[in-house]
């Protein structure tokens, strides 16, 4: 019998003995050390259960029970829940040590809300009751992804259509520009329509206007108005994701040369910008080099 199998039997045996002697099923049978960078404690023995707490690498937890199927019932910071056995090194009271498996816990999913207001429902469909609302530009931690067009979050379920996945360490409040680009990416493929400002069709300035309005930073409407009145100028050589980039092409100038711009887009990094294009009549990526380079007249940063 290998060490791990022997240790699992020791866990079960310890639980039974404690139950018989004290009348309390599965009192503490040992302690454990977290080996993942961050390990979630859940309300039940499965990844579909809600998250109660997160323990950092090296944290000590009290092990109450081997819950089976690769989970332990544990106590941590005054709460009782369940943690995956794969990322716990367990020391039993009889001296047996159960090493953690190699690996790290799967990355926590986080999402950026791209609707102006997003309903949170009690179940994964619009037929369920609305239990809360989320404001556009906010971040949510995703507990599970059932794969049916809905995400489960702590307070209920939200439509995946209006949530753009971002990295687990992403903090939108610390980077308005990054939030703007994430929202712009979620709108790729939307139609171009003159005079439209969302949520499913845009003209060039309506596109940038819509995004920053959703993020709680309203800007002017119209590319020249945004050039004159929104944000502050930055060098085009120092642009950051989320900056507005302006263009002037006399072929599309209906003002007789009295206005400074004929088009605006959003810089997305790596020499790319996202805009509502009058060429393809949709929201798309394009390069700031090549065709568009001679027409660039400036850039502005919002916030």
Structure description:
The structure is a single chain. By secondary structure, this protein is an alpha+beta fold. Helices cover 16% and strands 38% of the residues. It has 4 helices and 23 strands. The strands form 6 sheets. It has a 6-stranded antiparallel sheet with strand order 6-5-4-1-7-8, with helices on one face. It is elongated and about 85 Å long. Residues 1-26 have low confidence and may be disordered.
Principal-axes geometry comes out as elongated
Instruction: Give me the number of helical elements.
Output: 4
Strand order of the largest sheet: 6-5-4-1-7-8
Secondary-structure-based class equals alpha+beta
What does the average pLDDT come to?
82
State the order of secondary-structure elements, H for helix, E for strand: HEEEEEEEEEEEEEEEHEEHHEEEEEE
Q: From the alpha-carbon coordinates, what is the Rg to the nearest angstrom?
A: 27 Å
Strand portion:
35-45%
Low-confidence stretches: 1-26
| Count of strand segments | 23
Q: Please give the share of residues in helix.
A: 10-25%
- Calculate the terminal CA-CA distance, rounded to whole Å: 64 Å
Describe the largest sheet. 6 strands, antiparallel
